[in-house]
Design goal:
globular; Rossmann fold; alpha/beta; 2 domains; about 40% helix; five-stranded parallel β-sheet
Length: about 220
């Protein structure tokens, strides 16, 4: 192994509840009368993509909604929350990045979220975790097909001049795990507070990141 790829912003800092709150405030702003509680939201996290979740929820209710507009509002509200939230990196993240750097590993952030969300997160976490910690940052603008398609990982691996098997992905959700494994990148599941109950199958699940543990990861 010679590269660790953090697979979402919530694999670095747990933003899941901030995101759910931003969705609900966006629904109110658009007069939808929706509210996603935690159990409902947890079920929705089986799939990737907030805009797709909005569109699917509207279809299930027989409503016509501008999912793109609602999602843009949600993103703005989420970024505002990040600017005031007292976020901390998840357990072991800072030590893992430092240890990887000390061993000469590459470090990447491979997300399907927007560039603005990535910037807002790293601004919130600095100096504990900051943009300079990553050799590559993949966001929604980097590839045409978002997760669970493998494109984001394929792009990251190529950008780092690595082979897929030389990398290990750290993912917090099922769509991300599927994306990594579809790209032949070994993966460790690091669930956030809203995906902790999901069934990750034969993918190894950890509650805290440990660099030495990642060096032997196979993800199979």
């Amino acid at each position: 192994m010679s590269a660790v790829l953090f697979g979402s912003i919530s694999s670095v800092a747990d933003t899941s509840e901030l995101q759910r709150d931003a969705f609900n405030r966006a629904f109110a702003a658009h007069g939808l009368g929706w509210r996603w509680d935690r159990d409902q939201y947890r079920d929705m996290l089986d799939t990737s993509g907030g805009r797709n979740r909005i569109a699917e929820h509207a279809r299930s209710l027989g409503q016509v909604v501008d999912a793109q507009a609602v999602h843009e509002t949600k993103s703005t509200l989420f970024q505002q929350s990040l600017s005031t939230a007292r976020l901390s990196p998840r357990p072991g993240v800072v030590d893992t990045i430092k240890a990887a750097r000390a061993k000469g590993w590459k470090v990447g952030l491979v997300t399907s979220t927007s560039h603005a969300n990535v910037v807002a997160l790293l601004d919130s976490l600095a100096p504990a975790v900051q943009a300079d910690d990553f050799d590559v940052v993949v966001d929604a603008d980097s590839v045409a097909r978002p997760k669970p398609e493998p494109d984001a990982y394929t792009f990251a691996v190529g950008s780092l001049s690595q082979q897929p098997g030389e990398c290990v992905a750290v993912e917090d959700n099922l769509g991300g795990v599927h994306a990594a494994r579809s790209a032949d990148v070994p993966c460790v599941a690091f669930p956030n507070e809203n995906t902790a109950g999901h069934d990750f199958g034969d993918t190894r699940v950890v509650e805290r990141l440990d660099f030495e543990d990642l060096t032997s990861a196979s993800g199979r």
